[in-house]
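Weekly structure sync, notes
Attendees: PL (lead), two postdocs, one rotation student
Agenda item 3: pending single-chain targets
PL asked that the sequence for the first pending target be pasted directly into the notes so everyone works from the same version. It is reproduced below exactly as submitted, 425 residues in total.
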Amino acid sequence: MDRIRAGSPPQLLTSRSAMEHYSLMCHLCGISMDRNYGGMTCRECGGSLYFVYQSNAFGPDRNQHSMWRYRSLLPFSQNAEVVSLGEGMTPLQKARCPSSVGIYLKNETTNPTGSQKDRALSIGISKAKELGQKTVMLYSDGSTALSSAAYAARAGLKNITVIPKGAPVSRLVPIAIYGSCILEFDGTDAEALEWAHATSMEFGIFETSTYRRANPYESEGPKTIGFEIFEQLGSVPDWIVVPVGGGGTLSGIWRAFRELQRLGITSDLPRIVGVLPQGYSVLEQALISGIRSEDEFRALCLASGPPTIQVKISMTCPPDGLETVSAIRESNGVFVYASDSAALQAVKTLGKCEGIYAEPSAAVAWTGIEQLLRQGLARDGETVVGLVTGSGFRETGVLLESIEPARISVNRKTGAGTVQKILDG
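Predicted structure, written out during the meeting:
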């Protein structure tokens, strides 16, 4: 089954008749709550919350050059204060490599702190301000931690970052510079996530973890990536390739295109590809097994996985896993895997050929594209968009352990000859 095809190219609606009202709905018991409800899960059954927008048009605000141009489909009223550092509207660049398939790269490394997480945290910190919160907290030593610290600083909020014991100092320095209070947790990732969530609940702290049960508002951030791809490309791509950690980014992008379809803007839908580190197969197992409940999904999870340099996406039990599996299933997509050697090669390829310095966990989008082409899944004339989620500048410390830059020694006598050889080569 291919993506759905429309009879004519879709057009963006230019009307800005977006209504302010939205409601929250529980996916388990189906009850609705109005937008003044401040909880993160259903007040009746504790289920995950989703948003229902009453807007009848997708009208990007052309005066906004950030993701907030799509405010009509984000969980905010028109008069709510937005905490922004200029996130979103990242480049969609045509890849230089010759191919019969149209390859584009959505470069999320240009976000304020270097990753797509800035989209979620702009929403999360804005909502914290709207609710009158003074402190935010999360468990992470990666992209989410850095983004939470930056946006909390911008908003004047206190930020608490819980990190795993032994986290590299290179990841902690930027968090500390943003003024975050850092707590080192001795335990597994699952235990740390649970502790941070329970502690936030106990002390009434606004949690900025980006999985849905912790913060459904932040789960809306990745939708803006899908909206931008549609607007920048002028159509729906045949394939979108996304590195997968917790799963929120992939499922959010899929939700964006479903919303565009619901609004009647396009009947086309892309096929979604999730790129996973080699050895982290719980999502594919859940897809193959047809699992649809949280308990069944968690039963598949392992306590630990193999070591990998793809640390930002190496999750043994992705918190938004079920939603991710549903997106792959509904889009007729696939999961593919990236080895560490392939990830490092992708870092080099994106840098040398495309001018994008990506961390290994983000560069695997290129690995996924290569697999689509190698397996013949992407056909001639189709369009593939790869999402490069995070900058390599934040992981240079890790890359130093794997990549040794070549250096040629020169002096006044030998330098000119060496340069000539480089020019001739």
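Discussion points:
- The radius of gyration is 22 Å.
- Confidence is low (pLDDT under 50) at residues 1-19.
Action: rotation student to compare against the earlier draft before next sync.
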